[in-house]
Amino acid sequence: MRKETQKLLVLALLGLVSVNLAAQQKAKKDTIKNIDEVVVTALGIKRQDRSLGYVAETIKSDELLKTQNNNWSQALEGKVAGLKIQTAGAGPLGSSIIKLRGDISMNPDQNNALIVVDGVPMNNNTTGTGFSAYGAGSKADLPIDYGNGINTINPDDIESITVLKGSTASALYGSRGAGGAIMITTKSGKSKNGKVQISLNSYSSYDTVLKWPDYQYEYGQGTMQKDTNGNYFYSYGASPDGVSTGGTSSAFGPKFAGQYYFQYDPATEGQSATRQLWQPYKDNIKGFWQTGTTFSNNISLEASNENTSFRSSLTYLKNEWMMPNTGFDRFNAAFSVDHKLNEKLKIGIKFNYNKTKSDNLPATGYSNQSISYFMIFQNPNVDLSWYAPIWKAGKEQVDQIHPFSSFIDNPYLIAYEMLNGVDKNFITGNVNLSYKITKNFDVMLRSGMELTNELRTQKRPWSSANYLQGMYREQHIRLMDLNNDVLFTYKNKFNDFDFSASAGGNIRYSEYTMNDYLAEGLQKPGLYTMPNGISTIIKFAKPSDKQVNSAYALATLSYKNLAFLDLTARNDWSSTLPKENRSYFYPSVSTSFIISDIFKLTSDKFNYWKLRASWSKVGNDTNPYQLIKYYNNSDFAGSVESPATYPNPNLRPNMITNMEAGMDIGFLKNRVNFTVTAYQNNSKDQIVTIPALWETGYSGRVINAGEVRNRGLELTLNTYPIRNKNFSWSVNANWSTNKNKILSIPDEFQGQPYTMGSVGGVVYYNAVVGGSLGDMYGYGLMYSPDGKVIYGSDGLTGKPTQMKKIGNAYAKWRAGLQNEFRYKNVTVSFSFDGQYKGMAYSQSHHKMTEQGKLEHTLIGRDNPGGLIIGEGVVQNSDGSFSTNTKGVLASAYYADYYRRANVETNTFDTSFIKLRDARISYSFPKTVTQQLKITDLTLALFGRNLWMWTKFPLFDPEAATLNDNQITPGVEMGQLPTARTVGIQLNVKF
C-alpha cells in the first residue's frame, strides 16, 4: 500500500472528517468510500456508523480531559444534541443524571439514560438521606449529595463515549435502556512496537462563586418600626431608644446614614454598653466562602504486542470545596488485560476500584442546618466575625453563638460541627471470553460485577436548631449487581450480501441493603457514638433484590455496503412483575441507505448522503416488592409497620414505542457534515402511584395508567472551515427541541389534574391531558379581564382559591457550539451552550425578598411613610374595577407580593448562555521532547463556567433540587453556589 494511502487510512480510522487533499487524490476512490468511523453499540458490539439506522454520537476522551471536573459527565453538557446533564448544585461531588430526549415517564426513576461500562450496565441510582429539601421548622434533617455511580468513573481511564439515543439504539439492553444509553469504553493497552508507555496527567484547579444574588446593603435589620419621635430605629434588646428590633430576620430597618444604635457586642455576647455606628458589612455572606481547590494526579502504564495488551492506572484526587471544611478525597485504580491464548480463544479482564472519602460534605436545601439557610437570613448589619468563635464562652459543645435567632444556626457550627461524612468503596469489573468455533461462528461469554460498600455518618451538635441535644446517624449501604451474558455470532458473505446474526442471553441479579442507625440526643455533647445516644433507633435493612432473565437476538444484512437492515428481538422475565405478566417481548427494526453511493452522487463538493430510519418497542418493569404486601421495619425495636402504598398483584410492563428518521450529509471533501434527526416515542401503561382513600389504610396505590408522547428534532453540524499544515479551525454545533405531551392520565383523575410530585408544598408537578411532563402548578396573582393585578381593600394582592399552571421546568430548545483552533503546537478551544425558556421557582428569592435582602426591594422605601401602592385594580361591590389607591408599608408589600405560596411571582425564566469551558494548550516540539527523552509533553490552561448571561436572579438558572434521592428540575430550594473554575494541566508521556 502506498504511503499516502496509509496516511489516509490512519486519519479516517481515527474519525477525522477531513483528509489531506493530496492523499485523497492519490488514493483509490473505492478505498475511501468503504472507510467509516467505528462506534460501540449495545452489548459492546462495534459497528460502522454508516450501517446504523439511528443516531450514535461518539465523544473522545480528549473532550472529557480538556476541562477537568469533579464529575466528568458534566463535560458532555452542550456537546450532544438532545442530551441534558441534570445536577442539583448541592456540593463538590455533583451527582448527575443524564437525560436523552426528555422525560418519557410520569415515574421520575425511569427517565434517565442507562450507563454502560465496557458492555456491562451500571447502577446509577442514588440513596438519599430520607429527607426533603424543604425542612424549615420541621425538626428534620436535610438531603446531602453523596455522589452517585457515574462520578466514581475516572475520566483518565475513559477512551470514548458513545451516546445511543432513543430506545431503538438501546433496545438490546431491555428495560434499563428505555431512556437511551451512554456507552463508555475504558482504555486498554495500545502502545506501539511492544514498548511500555508511561503517561502522567496532573492538574490543579481553583473554584470561585460564579454568580451571587443582588444583595442590598443600604438598609439594615428591622421591620420599619419607629421610635416615639416617629423615626426609624434599631435596638439589640430593649434600650433607651425603644423596644428590641434585633430578633427579626428582615432588613427593613433604618438606612445606613452614619447614625449610632445599641447593637450586639461580641465581647459580652449581649447588648453593647454604648451606641455603636450603624454600618453595613458588605462581605458578611461572600466572605464566608473560600477559593476551592482540586489537585489530581494520574499515572498509567500500558504495553502491547501481537498477543497481549495490558494497562494499569492510578489516580488520586483531593478536593477542598468553596464552603470551608468541605471536600473529599478520591482514589482510583484500574487494570485491564487482553490476551490471545491461541488462534481461537481470547480472554479480557477489566477491574476498576474507587474509594471516595470525606469528613464533611455540605447539606443542601432550605432548613436550619444548611449554609443556604444562613445566607438567606443573614442581615446586612451583622458582622460575619461575630459568629467565628462558634461556642459561647465557657459553653463549648453545649451552646452555640446565634445571637439573633435560635432558629438560625451559626455558619461556622454548620461548617465545622454539623459533619456529613462518607467512606465509599466501589468496585466494577468484568471477564470476557471469546472463542472462534469456526471461521464464521464465534461465542462470547462475559461476566460483570458491580459492588458498593458505603458508610455515611451525620453528626449534629448540641444546641443546633433541630437537635437541641444533638444527633448521630450511620447509614451502612451495600449494593451488588451481577450481569452474565452469552452471545453467539455468525457472520458470512453471500455474493453482494453481508450477513451477521447474534443470539444470546443475560441474567442480571441485584441486591441492595441499607442498615440505618440513629442516636437521637447525645448524653455527652461532642461524643458521636451509638452508645452515647439518649434514645437509639435501629432500622435493619429489608431486602431489595431483583432479577431479570433475558434472551435476545440481532440480525444485520447489508448489500454492497450500500443498504443495511437491522432486526433485534428481546424477551425479558422480570421478578418485579406478576407471573402472568412477567414475560414481555419487544422488537426493533432499523435501516440505512447510502444514497450518495447508490446513485453515484459523489463529487468534490458533495461527498456523502445517508438516509436512516428505525422503529422499536421496548418494555419497562418496576421496582421490587410492589406486588404483595410487605411490612416495613418500625422505629420501635421489635415491631413492624404496614406499608403506606397498596400493592398491585396485576401490574403489567410499561411499553415504549419509538420511531426515528434522519439523514447525514457531507460536503466539500467531508469538511462540512450535517445531521438531522426527527423522532417520536410513546410510553403507555406507565407504572405510577396514585393517592388512595384514607379509609383503606393506605396513602397510595400502584397502577398501570397514562400515556406520554415525545416528539423532537435534533440538528448537528461538524465542519473544518480551515485546515492546512500549520493551521486548522473546527466548529461543532448542535440544536435540539423536544415537545412532550400527556395523552392520557389515570381514569381516577379524569377532569382533575394528577399530581405526580411536589416540592416544598408550593410547587406541584401536575399531569393534565394535553399538558406536558414538567408542567409546574401553584398559586399566583389574580387578574381583571384586561390583565391588571387585582388587589384587596387592604392594599394587598387578591388570594386565589385555585392553583394554575405557572410554566414548565424544561427548555423549549437547547444548543451548543464548540470551536477549536490549532496553530502549529498551540491549540485554543472554547465551548458555549445555552437554552431558551424553561422556568424555575426560587424559594431563596421568595424569602430574601420577603425579608428585604435583595436590591429590588429598595424600590418604594423612600416613599412618603414608606408606603407602596400596588399597581393594579380593586374589584368593587358591583363587580366593576377601579384603580388601587391603598398604600401599604414596603415591608408588608414585598412580604405579600412575593409570599412563598405565590409561585408566579417567584418563578423566573431560565434562559441562559454559558461559556461552558475554554482551554489553551501548548505541545512541546520533538526537539524538546527528544532531549528530555519523552514522547509527548503538553501544558494547558483551562476554565469552566467562565461567563454566563441569564435573567435568572439567583445563583444558577440550571436550578434543580435534591429532594431525598431525587433531582427535581425547576425548583431552587436553598441552592448552593455554582463554581467558576480555572486550572492548569500537565500531560507527559514516556
UniProtKB/TrEMBL annotation:
InterPro entries, alphabetized: Beta-barrel_TonB, Beta-barrel_TonB_sf, Plug_dom, Plug_dom_sf, TonB-dep_OMP_SusC/RagA, TonB-dep_OMP_SusC/RagA_CS, TonB-dep_rcpt-like
Domain annotation TonB-dependent receptor-like beta-barrel: ranges: 428-831
PROSITE patterns: TONB_DEPENDENT_REC_3 (PS52016)
Example of a GO MF term: siderophore uptake transmembrane transporter activity
GO biological process terms on file: siderophore transmembrane transport
Pfam families: Plug, TonB_dep_Rec_b-barrel
Membrane topology category: Multi-pass membrane protein
Transmembrane segment boundaries: none
GO cellular component, one term: cell outer membrane
Signal peptide coordinates: 1-22
Annotated ranges, domain TonB-dependent receptor plug: 55-181
UniProtKB keywords: Cell outer membrane, Membrane, Receptor, Signal, TonB box, Transmembrane, Transmembrane beta strand, Transport
Subcellular location: Cell outer membrane
Domain of life: Bacteria
Family stated for the protein in its record: Belongs to the TonB-dependent receptor family.
Name the record gives this protein: TonB-linked outer membrane protein, SusC/RagA family
Organism of provenance: Chryseobacterium soldanellicola
